[in-house]
Design goal:
The complex is a heterodimer of chains A (623) and B (353).
Chain A (H helix, E strand, L loop, with lengths): L2 H4 L3 H10 L3 H30 L9 H35 L8 H20 L15 H6 L4 H29 L12 H32 L14 H34 L6 H14 L15 H29 L8 H24 L1 H7 L3 H31 L5 H27 L16 H31 L38 H7 L14 E3 L5 H18 L7 H21 L5 E3 L1 H6 L8
Antiparallel strand pairs in A: 1-2
Helix pairs in contact in A: 3-4, 3-5, 3-16, 4-5, 4-7, 4-9, 4-14, 5-7, 5-18, 7-8, 7-18, 8-9, 8-10, 9-12, 9-14, 10-11, 11-12, 12-14, 12-15, 14-15, 15-16, 18-19
Chain B lengths: L1 H20 L14 H34 L15 H29 L3 H4 L6 E8 L2 E6 L4 E4 L1 E5 L3 E8 L4 E5 L3 E6 L5 E6 L2 H6 L3 E6 L12 E6 L1 H12 L12 H12 L30 E2 L3 E2 L2 H9 L1 H4 L14 H12 L6
Helix pairs in contact in B: 2-3, 7-10, 8-10
The chains are: A mainly alpha (623), B alpha+beta (353).
Chain lengths: 623, 353
């Protein structure tokens, strides 16, 4: 949304975004799509809390409740939290390492459109005879028994959007390995870049097991395979393993970038370099590594036996150590600093106690024998909402306020931002703290209602009231976004005044080529170092020259759209619809055809000439 | 700031009050442990909670100091501290020690809870119960006693009871919160574990514990409740004997309402529901809850009050009370008179007078 796009008509802007390969615009696409799905998931959450506000409620029926509950989890994890994190990774990471774009801009666009069409397909279940209803974990025996097409939407939709995520992860890995500016060594990378790096590696290793699991499920449901059919020699526990070998790293895929955003926030608003940077990096890598060793703690009650349970219990506890290191490093970043409580800092500051509660209940859950009591109860629901809302969502809200100027060139209103924060913070604790106790008092999770006379009424009512606070908070945030966009007051390079890393050294939003000359990085917090020496900008590492840029292309959109069409063919193939097979073939032909076009058509991109760069001093040139 | 501190204090008290009053119901809550297993787990909960509260306190103290002492007052640039090896070693080593304190009892308890060797021995005298989970109801077979009952488990107090769990359709989980943690009921294999029901605590809970399904199993997952009657060893033996004495369906006096009900039952219901407790049929052939001692039970379908009105409502339209259950639509529609007779018959099915 830089100045020159606003001069265009709506149609031209739309076309611009459909064809863009620019990481900053793709970030905005991720942001809008992820934000939309966040609202959808939020509405589902509100329905859940309305239904559970009083015992024996009939706001929604049992079957519909299961669909809402399943879609709330699936939407929030895959279609809201991950894309929003990808939005920040796209918007910020290339800037932080001093790159002009990601390594594969074209693939970046494919990643987005795959996620988008997968997400849309997943949600179409609501309009085409029923959404998935087997929980976001989609356990095999229930999922293979589920009637209708609900679970098919889950399987195919996630398969498509999962491809997108996997490609995105590989793209970020390649970018960080290859495209760092001169002087940007690994140990000078900002922590958000580090967490993006480790997260991308986790995506690379975690998504294939999910893909395998979804494939088996897809063949069971649609092509008559029997991988999960016990009577035919199948095994349902395999699904649980595949799902959690993906599912547990997924938790760290979400939380590590959140840690990255908070690390930046603490350093910026404390005016102090991150305390114990090396140990923070080490802890990030260690968490990523251990994240693959603990999946079976989701299956303690499965009957894996005491040996497996004991090993996974101890491994899980071990993760508490690097996480603890991080908490103390953040606290000591602020210690001795000059802390300014801006809206992003509110979220970062509140994140510490909230996340510590989620962390310690995590250690409690790791204690296998005690977990037999917590497992599948509201205690677990409370725990993972404390880490995912108190960690990830706080980070997303923090990042929204922090990076809004970098992404859109304007500042969100601070007063409204703080009102949003307080409502959200109070609502969050009101909703979820009591749920620990509901679980301990004997309330299983995923129940569509509960009977009176079990001592669960008051706790549930309190929880529902809290949810209302969060809903109001989100509405105020939306209002803030609208007001800010209408006012449209542009800000400079470093609107917070205390920016430390390279993204704050370029204009807000940056020109489409990011850096006229690649910057020379002379240490950690490169921009801060220059500022402390009284300079206003980075020292260039190269003479001014032509910049090679990629061309826009509609092919990524078409490629993903082809799979979207094929998905209908795959799904209705089960019902022996005569049109199913042709639709599947046409869809795949569209995808493969556009891949072929991409392969045979030479596209060398274009050059921004040196003269144009000089003419348009700091303003961005016309493409 | 003062106001904020007050507000925090008040909310702290509110939470404390909630905690003290809030241990849940004795028949359902894990915080009122009523048996050896729940006790062990409660002790682990307490241990981990103490450790964690310690951690939270340390974090909170630093947090509060930072909040008050290091707010921005002027435009000076603070010293750019790189880190501190001493501090970093400190907050790596202490958590490791704390976790070890928790890990040791965790591991020992995990092994203790998994020990079912007493039941696996040949000619073992241990009480074994085969639990079979079906979509929204529970089947309990006592293999050594050769009896079957459903929905309401009867167990003796103060002795270990061993459970063999298997699901007949989709995955479920077997959980009696007050007495001990849950175990998944898989479709693939038999899971084994044990529980012990404390006599004194059982009395406090009215000798009736609530059991739940804890794994999402479909629309009525939340209503897949069962009840556990925990009685003394003598009472249990008496119950077993009276169950075993029922070898043929109880015969109602001719011409009575109950007899009419029995006739209807034999026509419409007996295809799925057994009224004798014998376990001669394999578990896969036991299609619906065994009703031998239906009149003795405390709930209808595990959830409704135990009276004729609710029973008739249930038979009229089970789908309304347990969506997605397997009973709806399997029998002809009945008029009021037939329902009265059927309800009277079912309520007469008692083994203990």
């Amino acid at each position: 949304m830089s100045t020159y796009t606003q001069k265009k008509g709506f149609g031209a802007t739309l076309w611009d975004y459909l064809t863009t390969v620019d990481h900053k615009k793709i970030a905005i696409l991720y942001f809008i799509a992820g934000g939309f799905f966040f609202l959808v998931g939020g509405i589902e959450a509100i329905f859940i809390r309305i239904q559970l506000a009083v015992p024996n409620n009939d706001f929604v029926s049992a079957g519909v409740y299961n669909e809402i509950m399943t879609m709330h989890g699936t939407t929030m994890i895959f279609l809201a939290a991950m894309p929003l994190i990808f939005a920040f990774m796209n918007a910020v990471m290339p800037l932080q390492i001093g790159a002009r774009d990601v390594a594969f801009p074209f693939v970046n666009a494919i990643s987005f459109w795959m996620f988008f069409f997968g997400g849309v397909f997943l949600n179409l279940g609501w309009f085409l005879g029923g959404a998935p209803d087997a929980g976001w974990t989609n356990y095999a025996s229930l999922a293979t028994h589920s009637k209708g097409h609900g679970v098919d939407f889950y399987v195919i939709g996630l398969q498509i959007s999962g491809f997108g995520t996997l490609m995105g992860g590989i793209n970020f890995l390649a970018t960080i390995i290859n495209m760092r500016a001169p002087g940007m060594t690994y140990m000078r990378m900002p922590l958000f870049t580090w967490t993006t790096f480790v997260t991308s590696a986790l995506i690379l290793f975690a998504f294939p097991p999910l893909t395998v699991g979804l494939f088996l499920m897809m063949f069971d449901r649609m092509f008559g395979a029997k991988f999960f059919e016990v009577a035919m020699g199948g095994n349902t526990v395999i699904w649980e393993h595949l799902f959690w070998i993906f599912g547990h790293p997924e938790v760290y895929i979400l939380i590590l970038p959140a840690f990255g955003i908070f690390s930046e926030t603490f350093a910026i608003f404390s005016r102090k370099r991150l305390f114990g940077y090396s140990s923070m990096v080490f802890a990030t890598v260690l968490i990523g590594f251990l994240g693959f060793m603990v999946w079976a703690h989701h299956m303690f009650t499965d009957g894996l036996g005491p040996v497996a349970n004991a090993i996974f219990a101890v491994a899980t506890m071990a993760i508490g150590v690097p996480t603890g290191i991080k908490i103390f490093n953040w606290l000591f970043t602020m210690w001795g600093g000059s802390v300014k409580f801006t809206t992003p800092m509110h979220y970062a500051f509140a994140f510490i106690p909230s996340f510590v509660i989620g962390g310690v209940t995590g250690v409690m859950l790791a204690s296998a024998a005690a977990d037999y009591q917590y497992h599948d109860t509201y205690f677990v629901v409370a725990h993972f909402h404390y880490v995912i809302v108190g960690g990830v969502v706080f980070a997303l809200l923090c990042g929204t306020h922090l990076y809004w100027p970098k992404m859109f060139g304007t500042m969100l209103n601070e007063t409204l931002g703080k009102i949003t924060f307080w409502l959200f913070f109070i609502g969050f604790h009101l909703t979820f703290f009591i749920q620990h106790f509901l679980g301990l008092w004997g309330m299983p999770r995923r129940v569509f209602t509960y009977l009176p006379g079990q001592g669960l009424n008051n706790g549930n009512l309190i929880s529902s009231i809290g949810a209302a606070f969060m809903a109001v908070a989100v509405l105020i945030l939306l209002l803030n976004v609208i007001i800010t966009s209408v006012k449209n007051e542009k800000v400079g390079n470093d609107p917070w005044g205390d920016g430390r890393t390279l993204e704050w050294s370029v204009s807000s939003p940056p020109p489409f080529y990011n850096f006229k000359q690649l910057p020379l990085v002379r240490g950690l917090d490169a921009y801060w170092l220059e500022k402390m020496e009284g300079k206003t900008g980075m020292t260039p590492a190269e003479p001014l020259g032509d910049i090679h840029m990629p061309n826009s292309s509609i092919l990524p959109f078409i490629m993903a759209f082809g799979l979207f069409i094929a998905a209908f063919g795959v799904m209705y193939h089960v019902n022996d619809k005569p049109w199913a097979l042709p639709v599947m073939i046409i869809g795949l032909l569209i995808t493969l055809g556009s891949m072929l076009i991409r392969s045979v058509k030479d596209d060398h991109g274009f050059h921004i000439h040196k003269e144009d760069l000089i003419d348009n001093n700091n303003k961005g040139v016309k493409a | 700031m003062k106001r904020l501190a007050n507000w925090r204090l008040i909310s702290l008290f509110a939470i404390l009050a909630l905690v003290l009053s809030g241990c849940g119901e004795p028949f359902l809550s894990t915080l009122q442990p009523a048996g050896e297993v729940a006790d062990m787990q409660f002790n682990l909960m307490k241990l981990s909670t103490y450790i964690m509260i310690g951690v939270i306190l340390v974090v909170t103290i630093i947090f509060i100091i930072v909040f008050f002492r290091f707010r921005r007052k002027d435009d000076t640039i603070p010293e750019q501290v790189e880190g501190s090896h001493k501090l970093e070693i400190l907050w790596t080593v202490i958590p490791i020690l704390l976790l070890l304190i928790l890990a040791v009892p965790t591991v020992t308890t995990t092994f203790k809870l998994a020990d079912v060797s007493a039941a696996d021995k040949k000619d073992s005298k241990a009480l074994v119960i085969n639990v079979r989970a079906h979509l929204y109801w529970w089947d309990f077979e006592y293999p050594n006693q050769k009896i079957v009952t459903s929905q309401e488990l009867v167990v003796p107090t103060n002795q270990k009871v061993y459970f063999n769990l298997k699901a007949m359709d989709v995955k479920h989980a077997f959980w009696i919160p007050a007495v001990g943690g849950k175990m998944d009921v898989n479709t693939d294999n038999v899971n084994k574990f044990w529980l012990e029901f404390d006599g004194k605590k059982a009395k406090e809970a009215g000798n009736l514990f609530y059991g739940k399904c804890a794994e999402l199993c479909g629309p009525s997952h939340g209503l897949m409740d069962f009840k556990v009657k925990a009685v003394s060893k003598d009472q249990f033996d008496a119950w077993v004997k009276s169950m075993q004495s029922v070898t043929a369906p109880q015969k109602a006096p001719d011409g009575s309402l109950v007899a009419q009900g029995q006739a209807i039952f034999n026509q419409s219901c007996i295809g799925c529901h057994a009224v004798t407790p014998s376990n001669k049929l394999p578990d896969t052939a036991r299609l619906a809850p065994n009703l031998t001692n239906f009149g003795d039970r405390s709930r209808i379908a595990g959830i409704l009050d135990h009276n004729e009105k609710d029973l008739k409502n249930w038979i009229r339209n089970p789908e309304k009370y347990k969506p997605g259950n397997m009973m709806a639509g399997k029998y002809p529609k009945m008029n009021e008179q037939e329902l009265d007779a059927l309800a009277a018959y079912l309520m007469s099915l008692k083994v203990q007078q």
